[in-house]
Specification:
CATH superfamily of the largest domain: Crotonobetainyl-coa:carnitine coa-transferase, domain 1
Shape: elongated
CATH topology of the largest domain: Rossmann fold
Number of domains: 3
Radius of gyration: 26 Å
Strand order of the largest sheet: 7-4-3-8-9-10
CATH architecture of the largest domain: 3-Layer(aba) Sandwich
Largest sheet: 6 strands, parallel
CATH class of the largest domain: Alpha Beta
Low-confidence stretches: 1-28
Strand content: 5-15%
Helix content: 25-40%
Length: 440
């Protein structure tokens, strides 16, 4: 992250020690932010599978905006309707900031147009309803009671546009005793059981290190929209989709819930060392940790051949995964002692050659400097209108490419006039009247 030149400086741009600037010649090093080293977006032509589909995004925070960004990445036109003056809640989530903008907001809002509109009253609601009549998809993340109050519930909007795919993305869904409860990712993770199983055995429950419930429910919303649009193409009918963050996160826990339902055995926090696979965890090495997954009998044998102890791989006491699970502590202890004798990179090179699943335990800075991930388009910096915006890519290859970038996350209200004029057909006087009433 440093361009060479001969004075070492820390991340605040300050010399590390007074000694760093004593003596000639001295080293001058110019600090570079991580994104400044990333390549441009990969490919030449952005994915256009959803070209011609218009999505009206009435959501804030992470889950809903992530869903609509995925649809935008696949080629849909996404019009993000925000509160005048403040916009999406996530715009205020900082620090960290990038050129005055929330980096959390920038992470889930590319390929969108921003329109500011106050639709809490009748005049603004008429404008929103004009948009709904022309949209293919509407996504909201307000509880049902508030949807009805604002006139953005399914019954109201589908009456305006029977072909509409309407998505409600809330914490607990549209039905049930909790339907009007507020919810964030943290709350959904707690309800789902994932926090209870995350962390060391003697540690308190831990949240997953990324907003997992937001992202998973956002993916569910995007997936459901694709299915609904596919069916609509033949029937001509719209659909109502009900996504609950708690439901999505709970389904994510299926591989831990089903074993409990089938056995009555309650799983507990173990630092991820209780997998159904006997050897499937992180280990220490001479320097840095690695992960090791010996998922079947053939891999078990290859592992012991690779480390120079083939007889252990053939020992009948460890013939099956069930046998190995019965003596997991003994096996793990033996492997740990062995792995401490060499460096992580030595082991990874050896395991790669032997086709043994293993990998590093990367920090975020390690991940973003991974040359293979960069080559696959996972990290890039896009430039538009003098703005340089770091992004995490779509990560899905389509027709041999994975370019999804079309436009940067929008400034608040950046496209209001264009959408109202070019899309809705409002003339200049009508738009000015809305401005005069502070509705846009």
């Amino acid at each position: 992250m440093l361009r060479e030149a001969n004075l070492t400086i820390n991340r605040a741009g300050v010399p590390n020690t007074a000694g760093d600037i004593i003596g000639l010649p001295f080293l001058l090093v110019i600090f570079m932010l991580p994104f400044e080293q990333l390549p441009a977006p990969p490919g030449k032509h952005a994915t256009a599978l959803l070209k011609g589909v218009t999505v009206l995004d009435l959501t804030t925070s992470i889950a809903g905006p992530y869903a609509t960004m995925l649809l935008g990445d696949m080629g849909a036109r996404v019009i993000k309707v925000e509160r005048p003056g403040s916009g999406d809640d996530c715009r205020a989530w900082g620090p960290p900031w990038h050129e005055g903008e929330s980096l959390w907001f920038l992470s889930v809002n590319r390929n969108k147009e921003s329109v500011t509109l106050d639709y809490s009253g009748e005049a603004g609601r008429r404008v929103l309803h004009d948009m709904v009549k022309k949209a293919d998809v509407v996504i909201v993340n307000l509880v049902g009671r508030v949807q009805k109050k604002l006139g953005i519930d399914h019954a109201t909007l589908s009456a305006l546009n029977p072909r509409l795919v309407f998505v409600s993305l809330t914490g607990f869904g549209m039905e049930g005793a909790r339907r009007d409860f507020p919810c964030y990712d943290l709350i959904a993770e707690g309800y789902s059981g994932v926090m209870d199983l995350t962390g060391e055995a003697d540690s308190p429950p831990q949240k997953v290190g990324t907003p997992a419930a937001d992202l998973i429910s956002g993916m569910d919303a995007a997936m459901a929209v694709l299915g609904a649009l596919f069916e609509r193409a033949s029937s001509g009918q719209g659909h109502q989709i009900d996504i609950a963050m708690v439901d999505s996160m709970t389904r994510f826990m299926s591989p831990r819930i089903l074993p409990f339902l089938g056995t009555g055995e309650i799983p507990h926090r173990s630092g991820a060392r209780d997998s159904v696979i006997a050897v499937y965890q992180a280990f220490e090495t001479q320097d840095k940790p690695l992960t090791l997954g010996l998922g079947n009998d053939a891999i078990w044998k290859r592992f012991w051949e690779a480390v120079g102890e083939p007889a252990k791989g053939l020992d009948p006491r460890f013939a099956s995964n069930e046998d190995r699970r019965n003596v997991r502590a003994e096996i793990v202890g033996d492997i740990q002692r062995l792995l401490k004798t060499r460096s992580r990179d030595e082991w990874l090179k050896l395991f790669s050659a032997a086709k043994v699943p293993a990998g590093p335990v990367n920090s975020v800075d390690d991940v973003t400097q991974d040359p293979e991930l960069i080559a696959r388009g996972l990290f890039y910096t896009a430039e538009s209108d003098g703005r340089r915006t770091p992004q995490v890519g779509f990560g899905i290859g389509i027709d041999g490419g994975n370019l999804t970038w079309r436009s940067p996350p929008p400034r608040l209200g950046e496209h209001t006039e264009a959408v109202l004029g070019a899309w809705l057909g409002y003339d200049a006087a009508a738009i000015e009247a809305l401005r005069a009433k502070k509705l846009v």
